[in-house]
Amino acid sequence: MTYNKEIKRLVIKIGSSSLTSTHGEISRKKLERLVDDVAKLKDIGYEVLLVSSGAVAAGYRKLGCLNRPTSLPEKQAAASIGQGLLMEAYSELFLSNGYVASQILITREDFSDENRYNNARNTANVLLERGIVPIFNENDTVTVNRLKFGDNDTLSAKVAGLIDADLLIILSDIDGLYDGDPRINKDATLLRKVEEITPEIDAAAGESASSVGTGGMKSKIDAVKIAMASGIPAFLGRAGTPNILLKAIKKQATGTYFQLKSNSVNLNHKKQWIAFNSGPEGEVVLSETADVSMLGEKQLLPSDISQVIGEFKEGSVVKILDYERKRIGLGVVNYSSKQLKAYDTTEDKWEEEVVKNDNLVCHLESSLPVGV
């Protein structure tokens, strides 16, 4: 098997439907096939990180539930049992192939704090450099809905940016992205190559066809947007297809390849954190005379701001709104809300900008999912 020199580091997202049987429990056969395929990539020399669902599916029977639970407490209880069982299975199977697996349970709060975000990146980098297979999952046992990533599609894209992955592979129960819903429209066509997520593609994204997954096609498209904005191409294909991982790397698989344009602008680590993880604490409204078209090319000055909404400290991330209250960006402020509210345009002459270019991400709503 040949090595693709353009790709070294992979993030592979495994959905619950890709690991479970028709009864909704973890399928040992599917898990073995997945681990064997990952081990083949490791044998060639690729660094692989998994984002794996399946904790609830692995644990709900042991909890005494005949069917997959629907209430949050039962789901979290099932996850607390299943996460250990799932990792035990992963560890055993990877060891049989000569590799060590590690577990990283994460919450959105871990990513919203910049220090914890950087610590997670450092940990993952050490593991990958030592030949370990890190397995990420959201810590479902303690996470509440308002602090969730949303689904593991979103988490996988954020993790891909976290570790500077060269490719994000999302394995699902569908061959890829179609121009319509193939469950309804038999004439729907598989899109083999996508360079831009257009409004038409957004509209074509449907809901999950699986009863065990949490993310539908819409969540996968949102994940791809995050990955592409971070400079990472992505592939969406059906789990269980023979040699799907190696074929995806070699661009020989059936599925959808999301490729970067040659002139695409990629966010660095700092701006990725601001855009996708920070959690804005307030808002600043630009004046009607502020040149919105130059936002991102020049620093944001105190005189550009007409209103400050909310309470925040120096160093917080805030939403930047135009005078019509449309969100046009996010930025790290150099002044507190109290200082900004007290600013006098006729008397105060502050030397430092409100937001520097290095700490500003512009026009999120035009190309990226809101609220991720």
From TrEMBL:
It catalyses: L-glutamate + ATP = L-glutamyl 5-phosphate + ADP. Substrate binds at residues 53, 140, 152. Residues 283-344 form the PUA domain. The keyword Nucleotide-binding applies. Its EC number is 2.7.2.11. Its main location: cytoplasm. SUPFAM superfamilies: Carbamate kinase-like, PUA domain-like. HAMAP family: ProB. This is Glutamate 5-kinase. It comes from Sutcliffiella rhizosphaerae.
